[in-house]
């Protein structure tokens, strides 16, 4: 089996039924981004929706605000440096290919709704990331700076006019719920969906079952292993 993401050859040979999919840096960046966003989404909802005020009380809201700012620090400063230092080539390829959709990607998007709800469907061959993951990636790539810029503007809202703050709050909230919907779908696919769930180990150990990679990402599998399956 060929080596992917610079995994040691001995390790790859010891696991012939597995394929190395995500590097350590990619996994650290992924979990930092995901977990910090979830913390921000929950605490941000507590700060925005009035119903939480009665539930949490004044001290609870103050605590939510503090946790929100701590989470914002991790969300802002950690993900990109980890990718640049530990997985620059892979991160660059991810950004570049996320905006490239070929005919198989377009066919995938048409058919994916059936697969999402567990219906049987033959999906087109995909590269390292399928078309649905590319859409999610685009949302994250564009949504991250929108969240960071508007979020820190709200922290220092006294520096801006009330009209600007209202627009910033609207953009921040809309982006948060758009990304939140994407994250909920991602969690469902990664942890509950019968077809996608076997790939969850890619973000814990870095390895995924070879049969699963071949069935879901055949273009990438062929390239990664050097053994075309056609």
Topology:
Layout: H1 9-14, E1 18-20, H2 24-48, H3 51-77, H4 79-86, H5 88-98, H6 103-116, H7 131-155, H8 162-191, E2 207-209, H9 210-216, H10 218-225
Antiparallel strand pairs: 1-2
Could you please describe the fold and organization of this structure?
Helix content is 70%, strand content 3%. It is mostly helical and 230 residues long. A two-stranded antiparallel sheet has the order 1-2. α2 (24-48) runs antiparallel to α3 (51-77) and α2 (24-48) packs across α8 (162-191). The chain is elongated, with a radius of gyration of 20 Å.
Comma- or semicolon-separated keywords:
single chain, elongated, 2 strands, mainly alpha, two-stranded antiparallel ribbon, 230 residues, 10 helices
List segments where confidence is low: pLDDT < 50 over at least 5 consecutive residues. none
Overall, the morphology is: elongated
Specify Rg, calculated over alpha carbons.
20 Å
Distance between the termini: 16 Å
What count of helical segments does DSSP give? Answer: 10
Q: In order across it, which strands form the biggest sheet?
A: 1-2
What is the subunit arrangement here? single chain
What portion of residues is helical?
A: over 70%
Quote the beta fraction: under 5%
Alpha-beta classification: mainly alpha
Total E-strand runs? 2
Average residue-wise pLDDT: 90
What is the ordering of alpha helices and beta strands? Answer: HEHHHHHHHEHH
The biggest beta sheet, please? 2 strands, antiparallel
